[in-house]
Specification:
mainly alpha, MetI-like fold, 2 domains, flat
Length: 296
Amino acid sequence: MTTIKNKKDFSAEEAIALNNRKILTRNFSRVVLYIFLAVSSFFMLVPFFWMILSSLKTYRELFLIPPSIFPNTWAFENYVLMWGMSPWVLYFFNTAFITVLTILGQIVTCSLAAYAFARLKFRGRDVIFYIFLGTMMIPFQTIMIPQFMIIRQLGWMNTHAALIVPSIFSAFGTFMLRQFFLSIPRDLEDAAKIDGCSYPKIYYEIIMKNSVPAIMTLVIFTFMGTWNEFLRPLIFLQRQELWTLSLGLARFQGTYITLWNQMMAGALITMIPVLLVFLFAQRYFVQGIVMSGIKE
């Protein structure tokens, strides 16, 4: 009759062998995970590299069958022609102006609302929060016409205010910051109250200064959404001097012909700020997303 060995009955050699098997299993799982991530990253980056290579091809070469991966003739003049077709400096300025003001507005409104929902106690707080959160399920297409009528009544057509003011309120930003604020220990607030701090001072000194990762995450999401927005600028901006980069790119798509190589060059230049912001702020982005799901 065989008996099951206890941990004390294992010899040193068996313990070492068991530990080595665990290490090999862990390393094998890690290698498989890295291979999966590398393959997934490759397929995700293929469209990006195809856009770069297409921006360096001649118009005729884009439609060769079978298609060529690398250009036979490197057409760097596509970037020069693209830059000369439109006032891109003005488009960059308009887009940056709208994006910066939208980000600043969302930081203020979302943080104040999140602080109220996370820390202040008042009647109907949770009901109001869930109703506010429910607005995330309403697509823009359903409120597009009412918003257009309100903007027109306010006299904001063909102004950047039509894009900035409705965008500074975000249910998603409020939800994310509220979840992060809940992870901040209440002992810090209690100590500040003992020292005589008011709610506005607690909001700034305790909450905001300890929520940099969540705020940077909000900045990244808002930046990417505002910088690449196309539908609302198309609806509210008719004058070319007010256009954003997305509307400037749409000029390359004509009725009978589309300059795809120059459009790809413009798309690449438009993407550079988004890539830079994400690369420099990805550390805060990961930390903010992780901590936003943790409660005290």
